[in-house]
Give the backbone structure.
Amino acid sequence: MELDAKVIARLCAGDIGALEDCYRAHGPRVQRLCRRLVGRDQADDAAQEVFVKVFENCAKFNAKSSFSTWLYRVTLNHCLKRLERERRRRSFSLPHSQTSDWGEAGLRAVDDRDQVEHWISTLNPEHRAVLVLREIEGLDYQQIADVLDLPVGTVMSRLHRARTKLIELERAPRVRATDLGVIPT
């Protein structure tokens, strides 16, 4: 659902009611995109931060693209920056013991959806963004190119690499609790 020009103008003028209209129209999609990019744990905070950014930076929307395309770009940029901050924070952390390398997902039974979300989270941010926008949000190549400010060919190659990586992850042997010496009770 695209916001009409009057709502966008009100939003840019600082009208909280227009922000509420924007959230009602786009909140679930922003939330879903955040969940796919930064994970369930951080999705709520990330989505809330996105709408604060939209409210604060609405004047930067220049209507060269649709409002939803601009909102996708704001969401994507925010999530990628958040992931980069997290990566930098982790790189300065003390090393974990070898057992932590297995991760929680390898030690507990998970449903297919959790497994796919885990695989998506292992993709590098550029590939993850293209995959999420295409396969989950349903954007076409041109829309993705507009959101990411990339040529369509780059979108297509990143999508191919992301899909190839997911296939590799799906085909890789899975670690079972019995492989780790854990006996079910």
User: Anything to note?
Assistant: Residues 67-91 form the longest helix (25 residues).
